[in-house]
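From the pipeline queue, job 12 of 40. The input is one protein chain; the requested action is below.

Action: predict structure.
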Amino acid sequence: MNQQRRSLLKYSAVFGLMASAGLITAAQAAEWNKAAFEGKSLDAVFSALGANGPEKSDAVTLIAPDIAENGAVVPAGVSTTLNAQKMAILVEKNPTPLAGEFMIPAGTEAFVNTRIKMSQTSNVYALAQADGKWYMAAKEVKVTLGGCGG
C-alpha cells in the first residue's frame, strides 16, 4: 500500500470518528482557508487571511527558539492578551508560508503551541486577530539542520 493511500485512510478515519462523536461538523471541516495555506508569499497569505498590513504589537508574543537544531520539528507558539478570535503562524522562507491557522473560541485563553517545519533560517511571524484587526510579532529563527527541503 503506498504512503498517500495510508495517509488518506488514516485521516479519513480520524475525521470520521470526530464527526460521528460530534466534535466537528462538515461545515467546520469545510471552513479551512485553502487560499491562505496555498499562498506562496507573505503578501498572498496576508491577503487570503484578510490581514493586509498587520501592525506590530507588544500584546502578541511569539514563542520560538533562537536556534532550531532540527528544522523538521521547531516548537512554536503564540499568545496574546488581546481578545483574539484567530491566530496564525507564518514562516517567511517556507515554500508555503502559512504553518498554521487557529480559531480561538470565545471565553478561552488565547494561546496555541505546536511544532512547525522550517526549510531554512527565516523570520517567523505570529498573528492574532482581535476586533477585526490583525496584530503581529516576528522573530528570526536560525535552522541548523534541514527541514522542509530535506
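Job complete. The two ends are 24 Å apart (CA to CA).
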